[in-house]
Amino acid sequence: MMMIYVLLVWLLFGMLVGWVASVLTSTKRRGMFKNMIVGLIGAVIGGWIGAWIGFGSVRAFTIEGFVIATLGAVLFLWLLKNV
């Protein structure tokens, strides 16, 4: 039961991060599922870069983790648009 709760929280976190990143980059709204994918990929990218430079992580649901994940999602959207 706990695993389902954690999975649902991660999915909601991904949706929120993806939505915020799409607002910050002025991209068209993609819908809940695509925002969730962008948010989760952004969390992975942001966590990897954050760990690489020694600036926190996204392992816990904190403001710092949210910011790192959002920056990773913004970077991911920028890469999708420009590369």
Question: Outline of this structure?
Answer:
This protein is mainly alpha-helical and 83 residues long. It has helices spanning 2-24, 32-53, 63-82. The protein has three helices and no strands.
Topology:
Blueprint: H1 2-24, H2 32-53, H3 63-82
Helix pairs in contact: 1-2, 1-3, 2-3
State the main characteristics.
mainly alpha; globular; 83 residues; 3 helices; 0% strand; 78% helix
Overview of the molecule:
- The protein has 83 residues and is mostly helical.
- The protein has one domain (2-82).
- The protein has 3 helices and no strands.
- It has helices spanning 2-24, 32-53, 63-82.
- The protein is globular and about 40 Å long.
Percent of residues in beta strands: under 5%
Integer-rounded radius of gyration: 12 Å
The low-confidence runs, each spanning 5 or more residues with pLDDT under 50, are none
Mean of residue pLDDT values: 84
Structural class: mainly alpha
Q: Into which percent range does the helicity of residues fall?
A: over 70%
The number of helical runs is 3
Choose one word for the global shape.
Answer: globular
Terminal Cα span: 41 Å
Tally of structural domains: 1
How many strand units? 0
| Helix-strand pattern | HHH
Oligomer: single chain
